[in-house]
Amino acid sequence: MIVLALVAVLTLITTEDVGQLRWIALLALAAVPAVVAPEHRWLAPIGRFAEVIVVGLAASAIAAAASFEDTLNPGLGASAILPYLAVPLTVAALHRRAREGGALLAVAAATLALGGLVTNDDGRRQITEVGYLVVSAQWLILAAVGTVAAGTLQRVMQARGEPKPQPYAEATRLLTQLRSVARQLPGATLDPGGIAEHLLEDLRAVARADRAAVLTASGGGRLVVLAQSGADRVDWETTLDADSAIADAWASQQPQTAHRSQARSRRAGDVSALVVPLVAGVRTVGLVTLEADVTGAYPSSVVASVTALTGPAALRLEAALLFDEVRSLATNEERQRLAREIHDGVAQELVMVGYGIDNALATLPEGADETSEELRSLRAEVTRVITELRLSLFELRSEVDRHGGLAAAIAEYARQVGASAGLRVHYTLDESTARLPAATEAELLRIAQEAITNARKHAGAANLWVTCAVDPPYAQIEVSDDGQGIADQRPDGRYGLAIMAERAERIRGRLEIRPRDPSGTTVAVVLGTSPRRDTVRDSVTAPEGE
Predict the structure, then answer these.
(1) Phi, psi torsion values for 466, nearest 5 degrees
(2) Per the CB 3.0–4.6 Å rule, which of 196, 228, 267, 462 could disulfide with 261?
(3) Contacts of 105 (CB under 8 A, 6+ apart)
(4) Strand 510-515's sheet: what is its strand order?
(5) What average pLDDT does the structure give for the chain?
(6) 152 neighbors 93 (Cβ within 8 angstroms)
(7) pLDDT of residue 149
(8) Which comes out higher in pLDDT, residue 214 or 323?
(9) Is 60 exceeded by the pLDDT of residue 163?
(10) Strand pairing of 424-431 and 463-471?
């Protein structure tokens, strides 16, 4: 309405003829459908096309009238009505009708040309006037630019107005995509250790490697050994601030060669080392370290062959590590949620039941000895269940500390359980400074917890022996008791054994269950092959204790 009033005023000023306002009246009539039914599928577009046609025809007539009255140079009078072109074109753009906007521009150009061909009273045609052509072209261009600007503004406003996806909804979408992709992967595997082992096998076919390893970063800022090959176990350099080819390759993302071993304990004799970073995009996800007991084992041609294999492997390893991290986060969150629900729900209710039993005992009349004995037995059972729940909460909340290590987490759990159950616990902790992947450490901790819980609940033991030997990628956790043996344990204990077997299989370990001489059971989980060296760094044997 504002633009309509504006062009009406401009028309009067330009032509000094009230009769020319008939074009404004026709324009207002043509705008009625778009105003009354702006969302209608057909009426609104028809109204906009009618507006454009009226403007095109009116431009020539108003230009001729202005020329006749000598108020403007020939043809320039069309500028009085042409600003209205912006109205239908902008409305079409705001309704996200790009095709309609283009069609309106085409119809406007055609109508201006057709109107300009009409002969005026003085025998001239407006299309022959330079002023008419310039003004028409100018307003067509301005209308086109305005249409594009309006469409862009509409898209920006809509994007800002759309509600942002909720974190859990976005996580569900991404995890659903991950599940679909994982099912399509060769072998349907997202196991970092398995991918690392296959990579070492492939590399041995193109380069000599008396010793080799695949390392990746851990949460503590150190490297962990995913897979390793060779006759002897190597204590690889796992710090990224050391003076080593490993640290240089990680920082530079370029292959590095060296004439010394990349182990913390240097080897004598001729040694060639090659360290190739596993780079996915711009992120270093791991390193491949190869060593040979000869000089010059890794010329540029060999380095090129190795990097040709490590490129695709880096993408597979990154996907596996990300999947491991997502799974660990989801598992930890679920364990914490269960712990909160148990603590705030059934645990509190059981405590209230215990208080109720205590009140009942305090108010029993004299002579109700039989009822009193039953209530005491019930109170003892409630106390036992509460103790079990507290141990379960401790188990759910137990995690491998980033700085403490796996052995410390297992020892702390065994100490807590032993103290609550009256078990004498004996520790043998033999742990390297190198770390296992966080997901592997978490699974080994859960297996150890289940074995200790089974011994406490079902074995009827007095002593518990806990052995933890970690020398990545090798690890062995062993829990022994002097109880009644596996054959006489309750069925729910065997369910725990099935869970342990599933966990061991998930990390490519093996679960061993055997009788202990002279009595009891030994449950062990072994990961990798046994190290072949005399000592393990930072080994410690803890004294026996309650």
Answers:
(1) -120, 120
(2) 267
(3) 89, 140, 143, 144, 147
(4) 510-515, 521-527, 474-481, 463-471, 424-431, 539-540
(5) 80
(6) no
(7) 81
(8) 214
(9) no
(10) parallel
Q: How many CB atoms lie within 10 A of CB 6?
A: 13
Residue 195, classified by CB atoms within 10 Å of its CB into exposed (0-12), middle (13-18) or buried (19+), is buried
Q: Give, in degrees to the nearest 5, the angle at Cα 217 between 221 and 397.
A: 75
Q: What one-character-per-residue DSSP string does 71-130 give?
A: SSSTTGGGGGTGGGGHHHHHHHHHTT-HHHHHHHHHHHHHHHHHHHHSB-TTS-BGGG-H
Residues in contact with 415: Cβ distance below 8 Å, sequence separation at least 6, in sequence order = 425, 545
Task: Record the tokens describing residue 387, joined without a space.
Answer: 């103790």
pTM given for the model: 0.50
Could you tell me the strand order of the sheet in which 283-292 lies?
Answer: 223-230, 211-217, 283-292, 272-280, 256-258
Q: φ, ψ for residue 426 (rounded to 5)?
A: -115, 125
Instruction: Tell me the pLDDT band of 532, cut-offs 50, 70 and 90.
Output: very low
Closest Cα to residue 218, out of 404, 436, 432, 446? 436
Q: Give me the count of residues in the chain.
A: 546
Q: Are 67 and 130 in contact (CB under 8 A)?
A: no
Task: Using the structure block, give the residue that is written with the tokens 């009891």.
Answer: 520
The type of residue at 199 is: L
pLDDT by residue (tens digit) across 477-527? 999 999 887 655 554 556 677 888 888 888 888 899 989 888 889 999 998
* Alpha carbon separation from 322 to 250, 288, 448 (Å, rounded): 19, 19, 25
Indicate the SS3 state at residue 257.
strand
Partnered with residue 277 across adjacent β-strands are 287
CA distance 274 to 302: 10
Which are the contacts of 134, defined by CB distance < 8 A and separation ≥ 6? 75
In whole angstroms, give the CA distance from residue 380 to residue 456: 18
